[in-house]
Amino acid sequence: MKIKAVSLFCGCGGMDLGLLGGFDFLENHYCSLPFQIIYAADNDTYATTLYNDNFEHKCMIKDVKDINPDEIPEHDILLGGFPCQSFSISAQNPPRLGYTDERGKLFFEIVRILKVKQPRFFIAENVKGLLSANKGKAFPAIIEEFKSSGYYVKYKLFNASHYGVPQKRERVFMVGFKEITDYDRFEFPESITLGEAIVNLESVINKEAHLEEKWYFSEKAVSGMLKVRHKMNKGREQNLQKPCNTISSHLSKVSLNSTDPVLKINGRYRRFTPLEAANIQSFPNTFRFSSVSENRQYRAIGNAVPPVLMWHIAKQLVKVCE
Ligand SMILES: C[S@@+](CC[C@H](N)C(=O)[O-])C[C@H]1O[C@@H](n2cnc3c(N)ncnc32)[C@H](O)[C@@H]1O
User: Fold this and answer.
1) Domain regions of the chain by residue span
2) 9 CB near ligand 1 (under 6 Å)
3) Closest residue by CA, ligand 1 atom 7
């Protein structure tokens, strides 16, 4: 019997792919897990296009605020990688607003649906900044909301690079359990790639892209960046022997004027190709991104939960169900 899942804020489906498993990334096979997605929604047309190109179950373009819980079928697990912009440390301008901001409040939509549907589990995900947002008040308030919806909650801050992902992305996962016995049995996955075994950025870099002019920043962009670099920490060239710094949805910008990681190849700065960005996030090469523009691809990719990280967490949840 499959474990039935509902996915809110599904985006292009990084979290969902990790939940389902059944894909290869670099040298490893991530086996299928016994989940089935029966309902998925996101309000972004482009991310949903990508989702629907890649999953058997089709998602809806829908604002979460317009979802009536009655339209959601009964399910065992609710997924919600809710929007992070308002909690993110990198989103300094405007300053972090936390849960008083409209987008920060979207997690209440997860709570609204949990209260009615009461699935056995939920998994919510967000940026590290959630832990300190609103002078440290947002996170305990969020956990309290989940608890008052009838859940025992475990949470953990993960660094994706410790789980076979070539990126130092740090994300908080909150897992909720209706039953105390499930809560007691569940253990977050242990790090698998510490130290020597860490996956480096080089493993997902396409050397042929070094030869294509379109990926390089213009001389003007580079000289502009170099002028402000000392005070703004821009132009963050990556060490190919280490996992990459966190990529964001801003990768689509063609300027160097952001804190996003970039490559320095033979003295010249270039951005990642969409496929490199997808691989940095641990999407397999079989995931189809081509039906939307490159800008939209970068955006959906930068927003996603790394599938490989999610797979490790979902696998632990399967153990609870055995
Ligand atoms: C952090 S991303 C989710 C990433 C996704 N879980 C994945 O792993 O690929 C947040 C998503 O929330 C969606 N979103 C933002 N506001 C929304 C709303 N009001 N209703 C539905 N979806 C919304 C965005 O389009 C975005 O895809």
Assistant:
1) 3-195+297-321, 201-283
2) yes
3) 304
Matching CATH number, 3-195+297-321, of 1.10.10.60, 3.40.47.10, 3.40.50.150, 3.60.15.10: 3.40.50.150
Q: How far is CA 202 from CA 205, 212, 244, 288, in A?
A: 5, 18, 9, 22
- List Cβ neighbours of 165 (8 Å cut-off, separation of 6 or more): 199, 243, 280, 281, 282, 306, 308, 309
Please indicate whether residue 43, judged by its CB atom, sits closer than 6 Å to ligand 1: yes
84 is catalytic: yes
Residue nearest to atom 9 of ligand 1 (CA): 304
Ligand 1 within 6 A of CB of 15: yes
Interval 188-240: pLDDT, tens: 999 987 555 689 999 999 999 999 999 998 888 888 777 776 666 667 889 99
Write out pLDDT tens, residues 84-110. Answer: 765 655 554 455 555 566 665 788 899
Rounded Cα–Cα distance for residues 67 and 89 (Å): 30
- Ligand 1 atom 18: the closest Cα is on which residue? 63
pLDDT at 322: 87
Please identify which of the residues 10, 12, 59, 84 carries the catalytic annotation: 84
